[in-house]
Amino acid sequence: MAEPVARRWVSRPHRVREDRRFVTGHGRYVADITPPGTLHAGLVTSPHAHARIISIDPADALELDGVAAVVTGAELAKSTEPLRQYLSLPAVQWRPLAVEETRYAGEWVAAVVATSRAVAEDAAELVGVDYEPLPAALDPEIAMRDGAPLVHAALGTNVLANREFTWGDVAGDFARAESVSRVRVRWNRNSTVPLETFGVVAGWDGDRNLLDVWASVQMPQFPDQVADALRLATNQVRVHFDVDVGGSYGVKRGVKHAVLAGYLSMTLRTPVKLIEDRAENMHGGDFHGPDRIFEVDLACTHDGDFTSIRIGVIDDEGAFPGRSPLQLAKPIGAIVGPYRIGSAAYTATAVATNKTGQVAVRGFGQAPTNYAIESAVDAAARDLGLDRLAIRRRNFIRPDEFPYRIPSGTEYDSGDYGAVLDKVIGLAGTAAKPGLATLERRRDELRAAGKLAGIGVATCLEPGGGNAIFENIMNPANDKTTFPEGCRLRVDAGGQITAIISISSAGQGHDTLVATLVAEELGRDPDAITVVRADSLTGMPSQSPVGSRMAIVLGEAVRGAATELKDKLRRIGAHNLGVPLDEVEYSGGDVTDRAGHRLAWPDLAAIALRRQHLMPPGEQPGLEVVHVAHTPRSGELARPDGTVQIYPCYSFEAHLVLAAVDQETGVVDLDRYYLAHDCGTIINPDIVRGMVLGGTAHGIGVALYEQFAYSDEGQPLTQSFMDYLLPSTHEVPSIMDAEHCTPSPFTTLGQKGAGEAGYMGAPAAVASAVNDALAGRGVGPLLSLPIKPADVWQAIQGRPR
Amino acid sequence: MIVNGERRACETAGRTSLADLLRDDLHLTGTHLGCEHGVCGCCTVLLDGEPVRSCIILAAQADGHSVTTIEGIGAPDGGLSGVQEAFCQAHALQCGYCTPGMVLAVTALLDANPAPSRADIDEALGGNICRCTGYVQIREAVELAARQSAARG
Predict the structure, then answer these.
(1) Confidence class of residue A787 from pLDDT cuts 50, 70 and 90?
(2) How far apart, in whole angstroms, are the C-alpha atoms of residue A222 and residue A84?
(3) Staple partner for A355: which of A53, A318, B4, B55, CB 3.0–4.6 Å?
(4) What are the b/e assignments for B10-21, b being 16+ CB within 10 Å?
(5) B88 to chain A: which residues are within 8 Å by CB?
(6) Torsion-angle region of residue A294: left (phi > 0), alpha (psi -120 to 50) or beta?
(7) Contact between A507 and B93 using a beta-carbon 8 Å cutoff
(8) pLDDT of B53-62, one tens digit each?
(9) Are residues A193 and B70, on separate chains, in Cβ contact within 8 Å?
């Protein structure tokens, strides 16, 4: 394993270059983009969870001043293809506007285009729709049964996918187990809910046959999917990536929004803008996240050694499966968490219900799975009478065991879980006062003051460096084995460096990331490097910043591009210094021979761009290189038993939480929060810290506040921020954090992923703390998130829900 | 009304919100819309120096008043204000969507209370949601801005 080495810019504090334009209000979000002649779309949405559409009458709407068009699902379907899904289910047709049936409350039924968003909304209210309500499937476990109302009648079942895997001698290990701990845990429906809703502007250029798209998007294959649905060639859609995305954390997909806006623009021959309002975003955008029921069995010895794990999960997908069922497959890459467990079984079932569709959410199914695993670990500690920290330590994969192959086929790259756990405990105390004793003393003070108080722990993995091999695991018909990322470097005649990437960013700081990486590779000042965004036609193959992958895969692409650039500079240098190529070295921009003769950076650039007479014969002019990199360790299809290397890198985090529970109200207050994190080599410390802390706050929301709730009739009960509760300063405590560095042997600088950090472990840790508090009162555990005050209060009253 | 120190006159419909007027008519797009029902705080502007949610204030209600948006908060020399500078130093943002409202809310807090406690900060920012940062670096930025302002005198 590479030893950490001193670096000039990587891992050192350096101002985040994006911040300036955001603090001045000069970010450029999609809502800020209004080409001349833009018309605005409004939406007619279904009030029913499930209904047949009898008729749609646009007459009154069309009479309103300023209304240009009303389009129904039937009309749109004539000119477009269904949206892409990854299961082979032709009976399930996902379209921007409902056709014949509406399958969830909030689904778009028709769109109105008008001179302003306000007029479009007025007109949408004037569109008359007759519905015939149909029975709805809402509870996924009931929806799985024969005779349940069908979301998609043509499919004949609500079970969209069911995959069963067994790795190793699970039956034997359970038969031999001295103790089996079992939990059933519920991760209720929530999502990332960015503060910017989804938006898109589409402008059709009929003279060039080109559709320009500006969107708040974070989505692999977005341009291709939009083109396919609109029956355009893939080179007829140009997605502009120089659009700031106002938060995403996975969900900013919006293919259906872009297809609708694109169709409207092509039909009306003018740009069309569709910006969701908050209600549309929360229930019409198909942006919900995992909604899961887990049953976990953990086989142990009396001493607390884990020997096998069985995980069964049912995921309520809502009405339409886009990329979401794939979120059941990704956690296979970390199915045993950070623990040495010799065998594992996993059963994953995706079920359709009459609810809003799911989409990718931060971690792509890993955070709910981590919560399930950690809940089982806490249960094992309870059942065996062991300390929750001790049982984790006992089962951690040891530092000398890496790379470590888990039963499901993935090899973890590196880690030192015990050291990170030590670090988080250290945060809670001082050299003189050990952390745990300090935390327990504070807990006892709270108890003495009449609170229930408890300590929670979670030790979790964050797979990083996203590839898409889970597509193949979930459906062998998907044979994609690479998930590339590209970088172009150019040095101009003035010697100035520009780096070009072809992704949009949602706050991850990619300009800073790329400038830092290029600077490190070339030995040039990062502040002098310009970073710009190509669009989807001028750019390189790109899969967007999902799966905690940019530091890793862009790192590869930057390394590759810089290596090619340096090779060319060395060739120019050797030619001009009159020595063989193997006698020159590149350092900090200059090429030097063994005698110390030097050709400096400005001269190298000038030769390459302006002085053909000094160029080596046959060498192309210019200093332009493009490098497209595979994700490390990708390239193979899954074997029939589902084993394959999923992500290449495994970051680790340990959370330690002290929760105080008010016995009168059931309200939980997080009195202390400590977090230690290891993502290998950090590129920019401030950026990584922000992601870890922000993901933790998001996870606190999942644990205690956030849920998309539905009535028994399938009506959404959380339609605004008055009901769907995002954590504020009042809910998120001070969090003390520390970093640890175990470099990955499989990346350019030892870096791992960090974009989903914090969220990986916070829900489990907070739940663990609340349950420890309740255990002090002899009640609980509560095994359904979010743990609401009413749940706590009822548990205290001894009334199980 | 006075917007960022300049007298601006425009006609608008009675139902137009202050946020829509600022964004659509005055092209001050640094004011962001997050929820349009007065909860998230993205659209925060200062009305006569006080933070308000411009999505639930009618433009007509601002008639004759002074409005400060993020575009009007910078230092007179065109540089960053102390709060903006502290937000950069502490990396108190990621996607930038809540940031203008957050900067304005902090500016109003420090104008009224140059040395706020942790509880003061949490109270003043309790109505400004940030989904990226978890608030830790935002609190650090507020404390940094207060310290730096005190040091400048």
Answers:
(1) very high
(2) 10
(3) A318
(4) eeeeeebbbbbb
(5) 15-16, 19-20, 23
(6) beta
(7) yes
(8) 999 999 999 9
(9) no
| pTM of the model as a whole | 0.97
For A235, the token pair is: 């080179």
- Mean pLDDT of all residues in A643-654: 97
Residue A198 DSSP label: -
Phi-psi region at A479: left, alpha or beta (left = phi > 0; alpha = psi -120 to 50): alpha
Residues 6+ apart with CB under 8 A from A651: A461, A462, A463, A464, A548, A677, A678, A679, A680, A752, A753, A754, A757
Interatomic CA distance for residues A510 and A18, integer angstroms:
9
* Rounded Cα–Cα distance for residues B142 and B118 (Å): 10
CATH architecture of the domain covering B82-152: Orthogonal Bundle (1.10)
Answer whether B34 sits within 8 Å of A729, measured CB to CB.
no
**Same domain (yes/no): A218, A72:** yes
Number of compact structural domains in chain A: 3
Q: Which residues contact A618 (CB under 8 A, 6 or more apart)?
A: none
What type of residue sits at position A408? S
Tell whether A238 is covered by a domain: yes
Token representation of residue A634: 């990708």
How does pLDDT run across A529-581, given as a tens digit for each residue?
999 999 999 999 999 999 999 999 999 999 999 999 999 999 999 999 999 99
Provide the residue type at A307 as one letter. Answer: T
Partners of residue A754 in chain B, C-beta under 8 Å: none
Token pair, residue B88, equals: 């950069």
Bridge partners (DSSP) listed for residue A272 = A39, A202
> Structural domain boundaries of chain B?
2-72, 82-152
The answer to whether the beta carbons of residues A107 and A353 sit under 8 Å apart is: no
Residues A104 and A51 in one domain: yes
- Using DSSP's 3-state secondary structure scheme, residue A795 falls into helix
Asked if B133 reaches chain A (Cβ–Cβ under 8 Å), the answer is: yes
Q: What is the pLDDT of residues A721-757, one digit of tens each?
A: 999 999 999 999 999 999 999 999 999 999 999 999 9
- Edge-first strand order for the sheet with A668-678 is A452-464, A649-661, A668-678, A736-740
CB pairs under 8 A between A and B: 177
Q: Residue A425 in contact with residue A435, Cβ under 8 Å?
A: yes
Q: Are residues A646 and A790 in the same domain?
A: yes
Count the alpha carbons within 13 Å of A347 in the hemisphere toward its beta carbon: 9
B2-72 carries CATH number 3.40.190.10:
no
Which residues constitute the domain of residue A225? Answer: 33-134+198-275
Contact list, B37 vs chain A (CB under 8 Å): 278, 720-722
Q: Taking a C-beta distance cutoff of 8 angstroms, is the pair A243, A201 a contact?
A: no
Rounded Cα–Cα distance for residues A761 and A339 (Å): 15
Average pLDDT over chain A reads 96
Rounded to a whole number of angstroms, the distance from the CA of B31 to the nearest CA of chain A is: 7
Asked if A611 and A643 sit in the same domain, the reply is no
Show the DSSP H helices in A275-385 as ranges: 278-283, 366-384
The last residue of one of the domains, among A607, A629, A651, is A629
Cα dist. A589→A306, A389, A511 in Å? 54, 50, 21
Q: Is the pLDDT of residue A411 over 80?
A: yes
Which ranges of A479-626 would DSSP assign to H, the alpha helix? 510-522, 555-577, 601-610
φ/ψ of A302, rounded to 5, equals -60, -30
Q: Give residues with Cβ within 8 angstroms of A38, minimum separation 6.
A: A201, A270, A271, A272, A273
Considering the domain architecture, whether residues A655 and A791 belong to the same structural domain is answered as: yes
With beta carbons less than 8 A apart as the criterion, state whether A338 and A309 touch.
no
Residue A286 forms part of a structural domain: no
Cα radius of gyration rounded to whole Å, chain B: 15
